[in-house]
Design brief:
Layout: H1 11-21, H2 30-42, E1 47-51, H3 54-64, E2 72-75, H4 82-88, E3 93-96, H5 108-114, E4 119-125, H6 134-144, E5 147-151, E6 159-160, E7 163-164, E8 171-175, E9 188-192, H7 195-204, E10 209-210, E11 227-228, H8 239-249, H9 252-270, E12 276-277, E13 285-286, E14 292-296, H10 301-310, H11 326-329, H12 339-347, E15 348-351, H13 359-373
Parallel strand pairs: 2-3, 2-4, 4-5, 5-8
Antiparallel strand pairs: 1-9, 6-7, 6-13, 8-9, 10-11, 12-14, 14-15
Helix pairs in contact: 1-8, 2-8, 3-4, 3-7, 9-13
The chain binds pyridoxal-5'-phosphate.
Residues 53-55, 79-80, 82-83, 125, 151, 153-154, 175, 177, 188 line the site of pyridoxal-5'-phosphate.
Length: 374
């Protein structure tokens, strides 16, 4: 089965990991810091805190932002469940705002209609690798005293109005799962424009341990002392994983270029095909395409999904609207709430897209889709 996404691992990646295994630090060592610095450099220069997954990054970011009971987090339903569930798990109320009909990105007008004085975070998702409209979202957040969050699990390496992902929102979260635009196996990071927020996130992912003597409440314990002021979790990324990430980062631009080429090849082949609609792209965005989300019209998405899988093409669907998950339905969230997201979900089909996909494989996917639709 041709997968919809997969990692690209070079011999240099293997060597980088092996070197760590032969060294002194498997975790909490210098390679973690080096990886965080490299992520920071690739995402606009703000402090990056690494962690064990994109989900951990969201949990850490919301916790650092102080999200809790009584707060609202406004987000898109067209995302992986963790964008919302990590706010819910902290006790916040998640408010879903609909997406734009064509891009499936959080619609600033829909956000404007639901924000209140209780809104703590407005969390957009750069769906498929295409940045959301942060210049429209930031003033709404500023007006109600909320932070903007960019769930950039799909979009590291992309730009919006010439600015890199990582510099678009107050907080940016990343995932390094194998299907994403670069990988550490499991892994993630969050990038913060505000240094105090970054430090709070760092401590949250380090069990809450405070090591700065100037902040100690207990001043006379001894040189071994560290103390906890707020609860935290162990979400630390290892040096082993960080070495893989550092090595992968040297190929981020090449990954993006190949993903762009494949997307252009799909677009050219599918633009005039009846029964499908190709992904929308804004003129001021340079996406780092993670998914190729074609839309299958006339109610045929499921049929096309099953027939392509039968032909060995590992298509995927991204995503079921988050509030359809029973955990949200059981809280009273109703279907029909975000019609654009639901219409998008009904038609969406992710075609295979990863850097090592060959032109011949792209053509095979296109021919298979033509054959199934004929
Ligand atoms: C993958 C993903 C996550 C979660 O990342 P993990 O590393 O799998 O925990 C969060 N949000 C979006 C949009 C994702 O695609």
């Amino acid at each position: 089965m041709l997968p919809y996404g997969r990692q690209s691992i070079s011999e240099a990646d293997v060597e980088a990991v092996a070197a760590i295994l032969r060294g002194d630090w498997l975790t909490t060592g210098p390679t973690v810091t080096a990886f965080e610095d490299a992520i920071s450099a690739a995402t606009g220069g703000h402090r990056a805190v690494s962690c064990t997954s994109g989900t951990a990054a969201l949990h850490m970011a919301y916790a650092a932002a102080g999200v809790g009971p009584g707060d609202q987090v406004v987000t898109t339903p067209m995302t992986f469940v963790a964008t919302a569930s990590c706010a819910s798990i902290l006790g916040a109320e998640v408010v879903f705002a609909d997406v734009e009909e064509d891009t499936a990105l959080l619609d600033p007008a829909a956000v404007e209609a639901v924000v209140t004085e209780r809104t703590k975070v407005i969390a957009a998702v750069d769906y498929a690798g295409h940045a959301a409209d942060y210049d429209a979202l930031q003033p709404i957040a500023d007006r109600v005293g909320a932070l903007t969050l960019d769930d950039a699990a799909h979009s590291i390496g992309g730009t919006y109005k010439g600015r890199p992902v990582g510099d678009l929102a107050d907080v940016t979260t990343l995932s390094f799962f194998p299907t994403k635009n670069l990988t550490t196996g499991e892994g993630g990071a969050a990038v913060f424009k505000d240094d105090a927020l970054a430090q709070r996130a760092h401590e949250f992912h380090f069990i809450g341990l405070v090591r700065d003597q100037d902040r100690f409440a207990m001043t006379d314990e001894g040189p071994w002392h560290q103390e906890v002021h707020e609860f935290g979790i162990n979400y630390r990324l290892t040096d082993v994983a960080s070495a893989l990430g550092l090595s992968q980062l040297t190929r981020l631009a090449a990954f993006k270029q190949r993903r762009t080429e494949i997307t252009a090849r799909y677009n050219a082949a599918l633009a005039d095909l009846d029964g499908v609609r190709i992904p929308a792209q804004r003129a001021d965005v340079d996406p780092a395409w993670h998914l190729y989300p074609v839309r299958i019209l006339e109610g045929r998405r499921r049929e096309v999904f099953e027939k392509l899988r039968g032909l060995g093409i590992g298509v995927q669907v991204n995503y079921i609207p988050v509030y359809w998950h029973p955990v949200y339905a059981n809280l009273g969230y109703q279907r029909g709430m975000c019609p654009n997201a639901e219409a998008f979900y009904a038609e969406e089909l992710s075609l295979p897209l990863f850097p090592d996909l060959t032109d011949a494989q792209v053509d095979l996917v296109v021919d298979s889709l033509r054959q199934v639709l004929a």
